[in-house]
Records
---
Amino acid sequence: MRFRIFRYDPDKDEKPAMRDYEVVLDPHDRMLLDALVRIKEQDDSLSLRRSCREGVCGSDAMNINGKNGLACITKLSDLKEPVELRPLPGLPVIRDLIVDMTQFFKQYHSIKPYLINADPPPEKERLQSPEERDELDGLYECILCACCSTSCPSFWWNPDKFVGPAGLLQAYRFIADSRDQATAERLDDLEDPYRLFRCHTIMNCVDACPKNLNPTRAIGKIKELMVKRSV
Amino acid sequence: MVNRIIVGAHYGLKDWLAQRITALLMIGYTVIFLVVWPRPMSYAGWKALFAQGWMRFATFLLVASVLIHAWIGMRNVWMDYVKHTGLRLALEVATILWLVGCAGWAMQILWRI
C-alpha cells in the first residue's frame, strides 16, 4: 500500500516535505495505525503519537487524506491511495505528525472542566436522576483528540481567543450537569464575541469527530440557554 | 504588556440574535415583495406600490435589517481575519459609516417616490 507522509524535523530540515512510502501489509493489518507501525519498522525516524490503539486515548489524531481522524480506528480499506498523512492543521508542528497541543489544552482548561459545587460533599456520591444523567450523553464521551478544533477555521484564525468546538462541548457538558452550581458564571464567561461567538456553525467539527459527537449542537444549546436567561 | 490575550467583552448574544431576527425579516420582506410586485413592471405600478404606507413601513424595516445584518456580518469577518487592533477598529468604523450612508441614501430614494 502506498503512503505520502508529512515529514519535518525542525532541527535538521529547512522546510517540511512529503515523503513516499510503500509497505507490504499483513492480512491482520486492518487499521491505518497498523500500517504506520509497519512504516516505522521501515523508517524509525518517523515520529507519531499513539497509545491505546483503540480510539480511546486520542493520541494518534492526524489529517488523513484531507480529513482529521484517529489512525487507530480508520480502516485501511476505506482509504484512497496514496494515503496522504499530515499533522493536525493549525497547530505548531513539533516533528512529523506530532503537534504542539498547548493552545488546545489552554482553551480546554479555560472553561473550568470540573464540577463546581459548594455544598458539602455527601458521604457517598452526588446523585442524579436517570433523566439528569441522560443529559450528559453525547458530551462526556469526548476524548480530547483535537480532531474537531483543528478542523475549525475559526480556531485556526483565533486559537488564542476562540475556545474551539472541543472546549465548548466540554463547557456544555458541565453546564448541562445537574450537580454543577456554576451555570451562570459559565455562561457569563462564554458570552463573548471571541470565546463563543467565533463559531459560525459550519459544522466541520461534527464532520471530523471520530467519536460521532456533535459540538455544534452543544454550542447551539449554550446559545439557547443564553437567550433563555436574557429574554 | 507582552502579548497578553484579552477576552471577556461580555457581548455577542444580542448581535447573534439580531442577525437571526433580521435574516427572518429579510426573508419575510422578500416573500411579500414577490407577491405584491407589480406585473407587468411599470414606473406607475412601482410608484403606486411604494406610495402605500405599509410598503414604506416594511421597506424601512428591510433597510434597517440589511444595515444591522451586514454590520454584524462584516464585523465578524474583520474579527476573524484582521489581527491588528487599530486596523480592525478603522475597518469597523469605515463599515459603519458606509452602511449608515447607504441606509440614508436608500431612505432618501424611498421617501422621494
---
Amino acid sequence: MLDKIAKHFDFQQKALGLRAYRTEVLSSNIANSDTPYHKAVDFDFKDAMTRAIGESQSSMAMDKTHQTHLDGFAEQADKDFKLQYRNEVQPSIDGNTVDMDLERSAFADNALKYQSTLTFLNRRISGLSDAIKG
Amino acid sequence: MSLSKVFDIAGAGMTAQSMRLNVVSSNIANVDSAVSSNGEPYKGKKVVFTAIPINKETPQVATVRVTAVVEDQSPARMVYDPKHPMADAKGYVTMPNINPVEEMTDMISSARSYQTNVEMMNTAKSLLQKTLSIGQQ
C-alpha cells in the first residue's frame, strides 16, 4: 500500500533530483566563468530522466527464462549518465568555454522547470489527500 | 542535497570575485604610487582563479577559489618629471605598470560576475523554500 503511494511520486521525485543536480552543474559553470581553462559541462536531461525511470521500473521488467531472450529497455538502461562538455560558441584566449548568455538562460530555464515539477508534485499530493479524505 | 551545494558554489564565486575587486581597487588607488612599502614602485597585482572540484566522481563540477595573487611583471611606466624626488639622473620617474582602462574593465567584469553569483544564490534559496513547503496547501 505505502510503496504504491511512493511509486505515485516516483517520477516527480526523480525529476526534482535531476533538476536540482543540473542547478548545481550550471551554477558551477557560472561561478567559474572567469577561471582560465575551465570547461563548461552539462548533461542531457531527457537521457538522464529516461535512465532514472528505467532504473525504477527494472523490477517491472520481463523475466528472461531462456538464454536467447532479448533485453528489455530497463536492462539496457545504464545506471549512470555522463556529464558532457559544451561546444564553445566563441573561443576565448584563456581556454575558458563558459558562455554566460547560454549558461544563464539554461539556469533560469532549469529553475523554472524545477518549480513546475514542484507544482505537479503538489497537485499529486493534494489529489491523493482528496481521495483519502473523500 | 544538490541545491545546498549551489550555496557553496555561489558563495565561493562571490568571495573570489570580491577578492578580485579588492585587488583591482588597490591597483587603481596606487596608479601613481612611485614608492610602495618595499621601497620599489608599486606593481600591478592580478588574482589567479582555480576551479576546485566538489567531489572526485565529477571533477568537472567545481567551486572557485583565488589560489594566488601575482604581480604583473610587465615593464614599469617611465614618466619624465625632473622635479619629482624619485627622479633618476635623466629626470625620469619609475611609475607603476598599471593601465587604468584595463583595471576599470576588470572592475566592471568582476562586479557583473558578483551580481550573477548573488542572483544564483537567490534562485537556489527560493527553490529550496518552495521545496520545503511540498504538500502544504
